[in-house]
Specification:
- Keywords: ATP-binding, Cell inner membrane, Cell membrane, Membrane, Nodulation, Nucleotide-binding, Translocase, Transport.
- This is ABC transporter.
- It is found in: Cell membrane.
- By secondary structure, this protein is an alpha/beta fold.
- 33% of the residues lie in helices and 26% in strands.
- The strands form 3 sheets. A 6-stranded mixed beta sheet has the order 6-7-8-3-9-10, sandwiched between helices. A 4-stranded antiparallel beta sheet has the order 2-1-4-5. Strands 12-13-11-14 form a 4-stranded antiparallel beta sheet, covered by helices on one side.
- Helix 6 links the parallel strand 7 and strand 8.
- It binds adenosine-5'-triphosphate (ATP) and magnesium ion (MG).
- The site of adenosine-5'-triphosphate (ATP) has 11 residues, from helix 1.
């Protein structure tokens, strides 16, 4: 019998989680890169893992797939214990790694064929799927191009198509749209939504807050391997920010901060921009409107504000 550590997270609903992480710890040397991380993903859910560079996202996914082993904690994937049953679990999982590992000497079609064979599929079976996979990635015209000749974005799209070869129940994607142009990114979002509509489960990492906001049912923000927030995107925006934002630039931000302080809930300076968090925007509007050289943008709060609030607007590495 498997025992679970105290405080282990379990899904609130009846069905077993598609993915479960309980109190997972991972050290590299004397550095703790994943530090007691717990989360679960229900079947059919899209779950996002957000965090600054080096937060431990890729390490988390690598442990989930059984590529890296945890030092402590419980991991389950499609109801299989990881790493002991990782090979079996992986049969039902599609993976998009952070960095493409396509074979540059093979053509697009050959890459799909070789990958399908890992899953024990016959040549016929895979050939039958190739047209729909190429269509998924909008690579129909590149079937016989060598991967080494593709652009970076095309390779990314091929990696996404390749992850679907085995018709997986769960997709684990590490920054799926990094390096894609806006059209390709929107295409992939549409494709991922259609996969979700078909009942697939998705765990993804992203640095695009718009991506997380559009796709994810729930997300978890991690920093230095620890969970610092979890929830539905709009709930996090409401609970962490909960008011409008006015971005002001083109003026000395320090001087403006002092002037506007009595009229705003909270302020932050990032570079040359002053961020004002306001319940009532009118007093700020009145003071900056028409001021020579000053530009401002009044907008609802978004997930990027949440991320920057939680992890700091300054870059730390
Ligand atoms: N194989 C390894 N050996 C030693 N340290 C590692 C190894 N892999 C990752 N790390 C360290 O673990 C920490 C987390 O790295 P990880 O790649 O998981 O971050 P990440 O959240 O995916 O970052 P990014 O957004 O830049 O992809 C970093 O400090 C990194 O240097
Ligand atoms: Mg990473």
């Amino acid at each position: 019998m498997e025992t679970r550590p105290p405080g282990a997270v379990t899904a609130a609903d009846e069905s077993a989680p598609a993915i479960e992480f309980s109190e997972v710890i991972k050290h590299y040397g004397d550095k703790t890169v994943v530090d007691g991380l717990s989360f679960f993903v229900r079947p059919g859910e899209c779950f996002g893992l957000l965090g600054p560079n080096g937060a431990g996202k890729t390490t988390t996914l690598r442990m989930l797939l059984g590529i890296a082993s945890p030092d402590a904690g419980v991991i389950r994937l499609v109801d299989e214990p990881i790493p002991s049953r990782a090979r079996f679990a992986r049969q039902r999982v599609g993976v998009v790694p952070q960095f493409d590992n396509l074979d540059p000497d093979f053509t697009v079609r050959e890459n799909l064929l070789v990958f399908g064979r890992y899953f024990g599929m016959s040549g016929h079976e895979i050939e039958a799927l190739v047209p729909s996979l190429l269509e998924f990635a909008r690579l129909e015209s590149k079937a016989n191009a060598r991967v080494g000749e593709l652009s970076g974005g095309m390779k990314r799209r091929l990696t996404l198509a390749r992850a679907l070869v085995n018709d997986p129940d769960v997709l684990v994607m590490d920054e799926p749209t990094t390096g894609l142009d806006p059209q390709a990114r929107h295409l992939i979002w549409e494709r991922l939504r259609s996969l979700l509509a078909r009942g697939k489960t998705i765990l993804l990492t992203t640095h695009f807050m718009e991506e997380a906001e559009r796709l994810c049912d729930r997300l978890c923000v991690i920093e230095e391997g620890r969970k610092i927030a979890e929830g539905r995107p709009h709930e996090l925006v409401e609970s962490v920010i909960g008011c409008d934002v006015i971005e002001i630039y083109g003026s000395d931000p320090q001087a403006l901060r002092a002037e506007l302080a009595p009229f705003v809930e909270r302020m932050e300076i990032s570079g040359e921009t002053l961020f004002c968090y306001v319940d009532d925007p009118q007093p700020v509007h009145q003071r900056v409107r028409g001021r020579p050289g000053v530009r401002y943008l009044h907008r609802p709060a978004n997930l990027e504000d949440v991320f920057l609030r939680l992890t700091g607007r300054e870059m730390v590495d």
